[in-house]
Amino acid sequence: MLICASVPAFAQQADYQNLLNMCKACHGETGESQFSSIPSLKYQNADYLSAQLAAFKSGQRPDKTMSKVAALLSEKDMQQMAKYFSEGKGK
Ligand code: HEC
């Protein structure tokens, strides 16, 4: 019972890490982008970042890459990712 109940939490955490690794591939490990065509996210306001992710997902801010990426994110993912990059974490 206890094990079964905790499976979704583990699965969600694993999904979050996989998604975050995808973000880092483009936006950089800490959100400091190495590519001139990709914006840096490091130290950007968390509220701004999560609002942009929601806008990509809703179609309010269309982008051929980010609209597809944001479609995969839950509201909780967006908040966690916004917090991660706003704090400039990672190596
Ligand atoms: C394939 C490369 C790629 C991946 C993967 C990717 N992004 Fe992006 N991201 C971009 C590009 C390019 C833009 C600029 C879009 C535009 O011009 O509007 C962008 C824009 C953004 C913005 C808006 C920044 C701003 O200053 O307004 C946020 C926030 C963002 N990405 C977060 C994420 C997160 C979180 C993930 C992972 C879930 C992610 N991105 C994955 C390429 C990527």
From TrEMBL:
Note the coiled coil stretches, chain numbering: none
User: Keyword set for this entry?
Assistant: Electron transport, Heme, Iron, Metal-binding, Transport
Q: Which residues form the Cytochrome c domain?
A: 1-89
Matching Gene3D superfamilies: Cytochrome c-like domain
Keyword Membrane belongs to the record: no
| SUPFAM superfamilies assigned to the protein according to its UniProt record, in alphabetical order | Cytochrome c (SSF46626)
Read off the InterPro entries from this record: Cyt_c-like_dom (IPR009056), Cyt_c-like_dom_sf (IPR036909), Cytochrome_c_Oxidase_Subunit (IPR050597)
Q: Report the protein name in the record.
A: Cytochrome C
Species name: Shewanella corallii
